Amino acid sequence: MSESIDYWSLLYVFVLAAFIGLGVIRRVSRLLHTPLMSITNAISGIAVIGSIIVTGGDYPTGIRIMGAIALFASMTNIVSGFLITDRMLKMFKTDRQPKQDKRS
Amino acid sequence: MSESIDYWSLLYVFVLAAFIGLGVIRRVSRLLHTPLMSITNAISGIAVIGSIIVTGGDYPTGIRIMGAIALFASMTNIVSGFLITDRMLKMFKTDRQPKQDKRS
Amino acid sequence: MNAVVQLSYLIATVLFIFALHWMNTPMTARKGVYAGVAAMVIAIGATWAQPEVVHHGWIIVAIIAGFVVGVPLSMVPLTAVPQRTALSHAFGGLAAGLVGTAKYYLWYSEGPGELTTFRMVAIIVEIILGYLTFTGSLLAAGKLQEVKWIPQRPVTYPLQNLTNLGLLAIAVVVGVALTVNPTAAWAPALFPVVILLALAFGVLLIIPIGGADMPTVIAILNSYAGLSAVAMGFVLDNKLLITAGALDGASGLILAIIMCKAMNRSFLNVLFGAFGQAQQAKTGGDQKIYKEETIEGGAQVLEQANLVVIIPGYGMAVAQAQHKVRELYDQLKRRGVTVKFAIHPVAGRMPGHMNVLLAEADIPYTDLVEMDEINPDMPQCDVALVVGANDVVNPSARSEKTSPIYGMPIIDADRAKTVFAIKRSKNPGFAGIDNELYFSERTWMLFGDAKNVVGELVKQLSGSGMH
Amino acid sequence: MNAVVQLSYLIATVLFIFALHWMNTPMTARKGVYAGVAAMVIAIGATWAQPEVVHHGWIIVAIIAGFVVGVPLSMVPLTAVPQRTALSHAFGGLAAGLVGTAKYYLWYSEGPGELTTFRMVAIIVEIILGYLTFTGSLLAAGKLQEVKWIPQRPVTYPLQNLTNLGLLAIAVVVGVALTVNPTAAWAPALFPVVILLALAFGVLLIIPIGGADMPTVIAILNSYAGLSAVAMGFVLDNKLLITAGALDGASGLILAIIMCKAMNRSFLNVLFGAFGQAQQAKTGGDQKIYKEETIEGGAQVLEQANLVVIIPGYGMAVAQAQHKVRELYDQLKRRGVTVKFAIHPVAGRMPGHMNVLLAEADIPYTDLVEMDEINPDMPQCDVALVVGANDVVNPSARSEKTSPIYGMPIIDADRAKTVFAIKRSKNPGFAGIDNELYFSERTWMLFGDAKNVVGELVKQLSGSGMH
Ligand SMILES: NC(=O)c1ccc[n+]([C@@H]2O[C@H](COP(=O)([O-])OP(=O)(O)OC[C@H]3O[C@@H](n4cnc5c(N)ncnc54)[C@H](OP(=O)(O)O)[C@@H]3O)[C@@H](O)[C@H]2O)c1
Ligand SMILES: NC(=O)c1ccc[n+]([C@@H]2O[C@H](COP(=O)([O-])OP(=O)(O)OC[C@H]3O[C@@H](n4cnc5c(N)ncnc54)[C@H](OP(=O)(O)O)[C@@H]3O)[C@@H](O)[C@H]2O)c1
Fold first, then answer.
1. In a mutational test of the pocket of ligand 1, which residue from C260, C371, C424 has the highest number of ligand atoms less than 8 Å from its CB?
2. Distance from the B12 Cα atom to the nearest Cα atom in chain C, whole angstroms
C-alpha cells in the first residue's frame, strides 16, 4: 500500500517535472541552443548520485566496479558540460546595449 | 521513515506545482484576467474531494455536518465559477480574423 | 487509495494545468473551461467511488444545494464580478477551515496516532488561512457590494496594525501549543480558540482597507484560499489538492503583483496603508478652469479624425456605457475612421475589467490595445476620447514626485492632438487627486453620465451621417 | 534518506529549474551555469554524506578521473561540439545502464523482496534506454568526427527497419519475462541478454542514418538519456533524478522537434528515412551557368550598399571564417553600412551553431536576426552575402513540390537587390540538391574557401577604405 502510494508520488513528480521542462525549455533563447545542449549534458550527470551509492556502499567488488565506472562517466559529463557551457556563454556580447536584445 | 519520505513527496509536488502555476499564469492573456479569476475560483472548489470523504464517511454526525457544509460551499464555487467563466469567454469575438490577435 | 483513484487524480491534475494553460489566448480559452470541468468531474467521481464513502444522502443534497446557489450566482451582472469573486473565496476558505476542523476532531477521538506533528502544522495552517479568508472575503464582498451597514471608508484606530499582528501572534502561539501536544485533554477545547482568532483576524485585516483597494486585496485573499487548499492536501495526503491549490495560489499572487505594479504600490502599502483615506482628504480642490465642448462640436471633430483612441475607465463600467461606446465605434468605422481602444492594466476596478465589458458589447478584442503597445502611437492620434477614466490618464503620475500615483505607468492621452474627457463632475477618481490633463489646452470636457454623453454623440453622428 | 538529504535534493531540483530558466536570455545565462553547478555540488555532497556510503577511495578516484577527462573534453573547438555532445550522451547512457545492472544483481543476491514488478519495469526500461543510448551515441559521435573506419553514408540493407524493430521486440519480450519472475534461477543469466540486445539495437539504429542527420538524432538520443535517468529515479526512488532527467529529456525532445520543423521532416523520416543517401544520388547536376564576380567588384558593391545582410551557413563553420566575417562587418560598419546577420534555425549542423560561431568572433548578438524577423526586410536589402549557406537559402523549398526540402522555411535571399554567394565549388549542400538562387540574374558567385574570399574582400576594403 504505502509502496504503491510512493510510486504514485514518483509518477506525479515525473509528470509535473515534464511540464516544467517543456515550459522552461520552450522559452530558451534561440541564440543559446548550443549552450543549452551542453548544459543539459552537465545536468544529465545527475546520475552521479546513483553511482556514488553503488560505488561507496558495502557491496561485492563487481557491483562497486560498475558503480565506479558510472561515477566516472557522470563526473566527466558534469565537468565538461558546465565548463564548455560557460566557455560558450562568455562569448555572447551585446556591444554594451543589453536592453536591445530582441530575441530574449 | 516511510511517513517522512511521504511528506517529502508532498512537499516536492507542492514546489513543482508552484513553478508550473507561476509559469502558466504569467502567460495568461491580459484580456482574460477577469475570466482567469473566476476559473481559478472554480478550481479552488477542488476542496470538494476533501469534503466528500468527511461527509460520506461513517463518522459522528457533527463531523459529517461540517463536511456537508464544506461540500456545499465547494460545489457552489465549482458550479458558479465554471458557468460565469464560460459566459464571459463566450463574449470574446475576433471579428472573424482570429489570426490578428496581437495579445495572445 | 487504489490505483484507479490515484490515476484519476493524476489525470485531473494534468487537465487543470491545461485548463489554465489554454487561458493564454481567447481562441483556446473555452477549451480550458471544458478541461477544468472534466478534471472536476473525474476528481469527484473518483473520490465518491472510494469505499470509505458509505453515506450518500447528504452528499447528494449538498451537491444539489451547490447547484441551486451556484447557478444564480453565475448570472450576476459583470459589474458585480468582484464581489462574486470575493464571495467565492469566502466559500473556499470556509470549506478548507471546516474540513480541517472536522479532520482534527475525528483523529482526536478515533486515531490520535494520525495527529503527527507534520499533520498538526498542516491542520493549523489550513484552519488559520481558511477561516481568515472566510471572514475577510465576506467583508470585502460586502464593501464592494456597498452593503449599507458596512463602512466603505477605511476604519482605522491607533495601534491598529500592532493589534492585528498581536492577534495573529496569539493564534500562532496557541497553534504551536496544539501542535506540540495535539492529544492533550485540553486540546479540543483550545482548538476553537484558534478558529475564533482566525475569524477575528480576517475581519480586522480588511476593515482598514478602502473599498477601492479591494480588488488587490481580493487577489491576495485568492492566494490565501489556494494555500489553505494546499494545506488541506498536506493534511489529507492528497496531491491533487496540493497541485490545484498551488495553481490557485499562484494566480492570486500574480494578479496581485500585476495590480500593485500597475499602481506603483507595494503589497504592504495596500494591506496596511489604509489608502482609501487619501480620497476623503484630497477631494474637491478645483480652482483651475475646464474648457467644455458641445456634443455637436465633439461629434464633428470625431468624424474628421483619422485615428481615434478611446480610453475607457471605471466610469464606463459605472455608467454601463459599453454598448453605446460600441455604437460610436461603429459610426466612426463606417466613416473610415480608425478606432482603437487603449486598455490600462488597472482601468476599472478589477484586472481585465475593461476587456470583459467591451467584449460584452461585441467589440472585437483585436481592437483592444494594451497601454505599452498604444503609447508610442498616441502622438499620431487625432482624438483621445476618455470615457470615465481618470487616474490611468493622469500625467502627474509621470512628473509629480508628491502625487500618490507617482510612478504609475499611464496612457499618454495628453500626447494626442485633441482630448475629449467624459465625466459627470469635477470630482477626482479613485486616487482622489486632480488631473492636469483636464486643464491642458488640448483638452475639452464633455460633462455628464458616460452613457448619455456617448449616446448623444452617436445620435449626432447617425443624424448627420445617414445621408 | 534523512531530512537533510531530502531538503538538499529539493533545493538542487529548484536550482536546476532556475539554471534552465535563466537560459532564456544571454544576459542571465551564466547565472544559470552557476545555479547548475551549485545544484550539482549540493546533490553530490548530500549523497556522499549518507551513512550507507562507507568506502570513499574509489569515489575519490572516479571523481578525479572525471575531472582529468572532463576538463580537456571541455576545450574542444566549437566545430567539435556536436560530437562532444554525442559522446556525453554515451557516457550518460552508460552510467544509467551500469547503475541499473548493478542494482539488479545487488537486489537479486541481497534483497529479492526489493525487486517489485514496478521496480523491475523501471530497471528494464533504464538499461534498455541506457545501453542503446550508449552505443548509439558513440556511433553518432564517430560519424560526426568522421572517424575513418566508420561509414559516413547511411548503411542500408533489405528489411532493415523490420530487423531493428524485431530486435527491440525480442529485448522487450525478454524484459517482460524478467519482470514477471525477477528472482528465478535463470534470471541473472537472462539479464545480460537484454543488455546485449540493447547495445546491438543502438548500433543498428544509427548506421542507416546519414552523417548530416546526426544533429537531429543526437537531440533524440539526448531525450533517451534523460528518460533513462528518470527510470533510474524510479528504481532508486529518487525524485531529484526524476526531475533532472525529465528536464534533460524535455530539452532533447524540443530541440529535435525544432530541427525537424525547420527541415520540414518528420521524426520517423529522420530515424528511418536513410536521408543522407539522397546526397550521393542527386549530386553534381549543373548545366546552368553561374555568373562570377571579382573581389574588387564585390567589395565595391558592398561599400556602396546601405543595408547588407550576411547569411552564414555550414560553410562558414567548415572554413572557420567567422573571424574574417567579423573584420568585414567592421569595415562595412566603419563606412556607415548597416550590417545584419540572418540566422536560419538549422543553418550549420546543430541548433544555434551560427550564433555561437559569430559570438566567438565578438559580433554583438543584437545584430543576429532570426529568419522570421529578417525576411520582411529582405526586399529593402541591397546586398545579401551568402557565406557558405545553401539549403537555407534555396528558393525551391517554396515552390518545387518534388524537392526534398519542399516546405522548409528559408531566408529570402533571392528577394534582395543583389546576392553574392560564397562557396568553393558547384556541389550542392546537405540536402544534395541544386540551388536556383545561384542562377538567378541578381546573383553573382564568389567561388573559393569562405575564409579566403571574405579575407580578400576585407583586404580590398581596408586597402581602399583607409584614406
Ligand atoms: N483595475 C484594477 O484592478 C484596480 C484595482 C485596484 C485599484 N484600481 C484603481 O482604480 C483606478 C482606475 O482608474 P480609472 O481611470 O479607470 O478610474 P478612476 O480613476 O477611478 O476614475 C473614474 C472616473 O470616472 C468618472 N465616472 C464615474 N462614474 C461615471 C459615470 N457614470 N459617467 C461618467 N463618468 C463617470 C469619475 O468622475 P466623476 O465622478 O466626475 O464622474 C472618475 O473620474 C486606478 O486608480 C487604479 O489604481 C484598479
Ligand atoms: N543546424 C541544424 O541543427 C541541422 C541539423 C540537421 C541538418 N541540418 C541541415 O544542414 C543544412 C544546413 O544548411 P546550410 O545552408 O547551413 O548548409 P548546407 O546546405 O549544407 O550548405 C553548406 C554550403 O557551404 C559550402 N561550403 C562548404 N565548405 C565551405 C568552405 N570551406 N568555404 C566556403 N563554402 C563552403 C558548400 O558548398 P561547397 O561544397 O561548394 O563549398 C555548401 O553549399 C540544412 O539542410 C539543414 O537541414 C541542420
1. C424
2. 10
Q: Write out pLDDT tens, residues B4-58.
A: 447 889 999 999 999 999 999 999 988 899 999 999 999 999 999 999 999 999 9
| C-beta atoms surrounding D456 within 10 Å | 18
Cell of C362: 461585441
Nearest to A41 among D85, D242, D367 (CB): D85
Question: Buried (b) or exposed (e) across A60-76, using 16+ Cβ within 10 A?
Answer: eeebbbbbbbbbbbbbb
Based on the number of CB atoms within 10 Å of its own CB, is C309 exposed (0-12), middle (13-18) or buried (19 or more)? buried
Cα-based distances in Å from C328 to B31, C325, C423, D5, D324: 22, 5, 17, 66, 61
Q: Is C377 a catalytic residue?
A: no
DSSP reduced 3-state for D146: coil
CB-CB contact of C303 with C464 (8 Å): yes
Q: Residue D216 and residue D272: Cα distance in Å, rounded?
A: 12
The CA-to-CA distance between both ends of chain D, in Å, stands at 74
Task: Indicate which atom in ligand 2 lies nearest the CA of residue D262.
Answer: 47
Residue of B nearest to A21 (CA): B20
Q: Is B86 on the interface with A (CB under 8 A)?
A: no
- Choose from B19, B20, B24, B26 for mutation: most chain D CBs within 10 A: B19
D10, D17, D243 ranked by CB distance to B11: nearest: D10
Q: Which H helix or E strand runs over C215? A: helix C214-236
pTM of the model: 0.89
Q: What is the pLDDT of residues C74-96, one digit of tens each?
A: 999 888 888 899 999 999 999 99
Instruction: Tell me the three cell numbers of residue D164.
Output: 531493428
Judge whether B18 is closer than 8 Å to chain D, CB to CB: no
C48 neighbors B60 (Cβ within 8 angstroms): no
Catalytic amino acids of D? 391
For residue B97, the chain C residues in CB contact (below 8 A) are 364, 366
